[in-house]
Design brief:
Blueprint lengths: L3 H17 L8 E8 L6 H18 L2 E2 L2 E9 L4 H13 L5 E4 L3 H5 L2 H7 L3 E3 L14 E3 L4 H14 L4 E7 L2 H16 L3 E8 L7 H10 L3 E5 L5 H10 L8 E5 L8 H4 L7 E4 L8 H13 L7 H20 L5 H8 L3 E4 L2 E5 L6 E13 L2 E13 L2 H6 L3
Parallel strand pairs: 1-3, 1-4, 4-5, 5-6, 7-8, 7-9, 9-10, 10-11
Antiparallel strand pairs: 2-3, 11-14, 12-13, 13-14, 14-15
Helix pairs in contact: 2-11, 2-12, 6-7, 12-13
Bound molecules: P-hydroxybenzoic acid.
P-hydroxybenzoic acid binds next to loops.
Length: about 400
Amino acid sequence: MITRRSFVAASAGLAMSALAAIPGHAQETVKVGLILPMTGPFASTGRQVEAGVRTYMAMHGDTVAGKKIELVVRDDASTADQTRRIAQELVVNEGVNVLGGFGLTPLALAVAPVINQAKIPAVVMAAATSSITEQSDYYVRSSFTLPQASVPVGTWAAENGLKRVVTLVSDYGPGIDAETWFTKEFTAKGGEIVEAVRVPLQNPDFAPYLQRVRDADPDAIFVFLPSGVGSLFMKQFADRGLAEAGIKLIATGDVTDDDLLNDMGQPALGAITGHHYSAAHDSPENKAYVEAFKSAHNGMRPNFMSVGGYDGMHLIYAALEKTGGDATGEALIEAMKGLSWTSPRGPITIDPQTRDIVQNIYMREVKEADGELYNVEFATYEAVKDPAKAEASGQ
Ligand code: PHB
């Protein structure tokens, strides 16, 4: 049925799309450019973040403050040169109002010159090295930081009888952050680091390192590896017999990623991790999220990367609501500072000083329930700020 109202709206829509091409005229569409690794070894991150973003739009519609949200998704294949080139292209040719995504730290860092020049926000939905948000005033983060996740694991380890620990991390930004902040906390509380192992980011083979860890005979091994690599690690951990040797596995939740956890099988059982999101988080918001996500994505289970996408999209929507639809970069970034909401992961806030996320970090244990493996939360560290920033600002 064509009502008068829909006819007027349709005509106005036509007129507006013609006018939108005229510079200086108010835009009716807000364009969000997502740059993600959709191919290559980190494609699971791209797939999860995009699915989180699309789930948000499916649950909350594609119109906010009178503006239609248009998503443009591009694959950078985990190559920083590509990320920068695509960002430039999205700004210049597509006229995007906001950039988002960024599956690895070097990819997020690559867009700093572009966002500084264009003065538009870049919502970091995945990458998690603390210092990223210090490299431009236009970064804002909806994922997490490695210091934020690693300090609670250090506290827990020291308070639960672990004395001698080997650290094993990927040798780049987030791995160094995890090693540094776990070590700081664990040793301040009386623990000892027996050995600190760094493995290459690309094509890691853990076997020789794990042999060294076994020989050092620690109480536990603390691990950070980026999302997607955990299954290979878990297999080699089991093959080398570390669990039988009584070496406990503690890690950030990147290692027991919900997307891969079921494939890891028995060797993952009992692993203790600290992180901001578990698909098993018990809240009405998370139940609704997991259900919507799975039903729209062939039963795929959402992991922590997906929730970075989901909340990153909320950040954009809530900022647009606050500005009354003003999508200029300065207005959006200002509006994002200090926003608080209840995410599927729990309560979160964007720190107005650092543009980084403040959130609960949960301690979890891998357990079996209904024939599936889950990260089951058993303790909560509330409203954790990125400790690296808290130190820098003397807090
Ligand atoms: C990063 O490169 O910043 C990164 C990637 C994957 C993770 C965490 C951090 O799971």
